[in-house]
Amino acid sequence: MEINNEPVDRVNSLTSERLKCLREQVDWKFQQERHELLDQLFPLIENWFDQCAIFLDIFQRPEIHQLLLDCINHWDSHRRDGRVSRFVAFIIHTGLEDEAEVDEEGNPLLRRTTALHAASRRINSYESPAQNFVVSKLFVIYNKYNLNYVDELGMSHFHVACVAGLEDVLGNFLAVHGWQRLDRPCGAARDSPLHLAVGSVTGWSNKATVRLLLEAGASPNVANAKGSTPLHVIGRGVLNRGRGKHSVEMIFELCRHEHRPVRIDALDECGSTPLHRAMCRGNQRAVELLLRYGANPNTAQRINRMTALHMIELGSRRWRRERQPLLEMIFRLSHDEFRPLQVNARDLAYETPLHTAIINDNDKAVELLLRNGADPNLADKEGCTALHLCTLYRDNARLAEMIFQLSDRKYPVQVDARDNSNETPLHKALYRGCTGVTESLLTRGADPNLANGKGDKALHIICRRDNAELLESFFEINARMNRPVQVDVRDRLNRTPMQIAVSNLMPRVVDVLMNQVRLESRFGIQFDHILEPEPHETGYFKLRLASGALDVVDQIRKRNYDLDLRNALMIMKFFDKHQLFEKSNANVWHDDEGFARRTKEIAMNPSLSLYDLIQLQPEEAAKRVSIQDYYELACSTKLNKLLKAHKEACALNLCEKMSRRFFLAWGVQSFWELTHYRLPILCCEMIIENLANEDLYNICLANDLKDKKNKKMNTSKYNLRDKGKKKMDTSITVEFFRD
């Protein structure tokens, strides 16, 4: 029975005609047209393997080689349809084999870029598994091992086989050429064949490849353009790949067998040894073998003078869990000739491995270094000891305690050591608000009364931070240790801690200080510090000024101190100086729906929202909301929910409500005095109760002016202010007295 092949022949004929048509439409000089041809060819050749020989009749060999090169660069080898590998397989089925071009004398032209070169450049990328397969298949086409093509970058087909780890191909090249002719550096990097083999990420066959190259005569001591030997390349390898271990073992075992020395501590252009490189990359297996074979862990890098112990902390944070085993390896595996290890070696910045471990917040490394003799009292270039560095990134009280517990026997810790800025560890801890480290230092004997280079003592530093909890802890610990604290000591600007806290408007800190300071029957405070808004306070900074000032006054008055009119007027001048009075036309935002919705989401206290507070009259608001509530709102970021156009107007409205009782009380008193006490005090209150705070301030100014005139004093300083000008006091001092 005869089989009718007519339909198949017809399909083949149609495909052949289509291929010819596509080829004729391409200008081979233009890459884009060649790429478009590839995209159109793939569907046609997909099911045409049985008749693929016709492809050679339609396309010329140089054109096919160009298509092979283009398919590597154009199609991603990791595509799900595997276009590159399937196209290469199709070309192999055509029976194509490479034939060299020759010069006039008949010698082959070996300077040529092939698809093998293009594929090899992708092996060390994310496409490596697919490209390694493609490279192995391409050697079926480029199977003339006497033709070792070299591209424009200096990479030969032999180099490609080293990168891909193709043992059979390498053996064929060596059989034809011999090692002496093939031992040529690759490209500008000047990598030897052994560099390429140990540096490739294709790890499954490189053990055999490395053995083959070493047995052929490859030297493990040859350096590339950067001074790196193959051992440096292995050390820089990807974290913990097994190939690194096999390569190191192979190099040392074969060279030992053949009595060939290996420069295990060779320095590259940066002055790093292979051990340094392996440490930086967290390559445990390479580190282990390098140490076992005699790498010197005390060798310092030429540029920054770091040893292997320093290098552990230079790796990426994603290798943090690998650091502890590496450190243990150094102490466990280092040869006797390098012991004791230089655990206190200094780098160019005078940092020891202990400093580096603390800076990188590696508690486990710190513990291991301390147990092995690290000195915590050594200072770096900035004069910082281990204790100075404990607060660098966080409040690490555990680290501070570890230093005290593990070092006191061999190296008694200098708890009050000073750095180049004349600061002790306690000063550093307080600057950063580290309560835990502060407690540890004070418990271990830190002196709370020492001054730094700026003349600041511990209390001065604390009182510049709005951290009442830290201040309470400071006093409590010193009391427990029976250590007196100088609470009235002055800084270089002649200010006490109380004056600093007041001028910075920190009522909680003032409250704590009032429990410790013995105040005179009459004393003054100054609101003369120039405060700047925090980045998040844009639009409502004035609320913090007003609430802070009134809260500070409130904290002092709770201790049975009071004000007279002149000093109450100083507080009013503070409001005037910082423009804390509400504008008469500032309430247009009340009816905004968006404002109402947002303020309802902001809680002043458990029973009252900001929206509800704004609706209240000042008298009712004073009953339901304390000055402390206003201050806590100002110090939070809750008001950032409001639109920029509403923030300041809302803040000034709250300032008006909050200070209303203060201004009204003094306004009534001043108005009563201005009337020479002719009206009952209740009538005076009824007359002025609807005036704004700014108007009440003017009444107080007028009364003060009258008093000064009566006493025949110079009144030019107290003239009623011009409405077009703002009175700016350089110093606002408020005096309190106790009856």
TrEMBL record:
It holds the Pfam family Ank_2. The keyword Repeat applies. Keywords: ANK repeat, Repeat. InterPro entries: Ankyrin_rpt, Ankyrin_rpt-contain_sf. ANK repeats lie at residues 189-225, 270-302, 349-381, 421-453. The keyword Metal-binding does not apply. PANTHER family: ANKYRIN REPEAT, PH AND SEC7 DOMAIN CONTAINING PROTEIN SECG-RELATED. This is Uncharacterized protein.
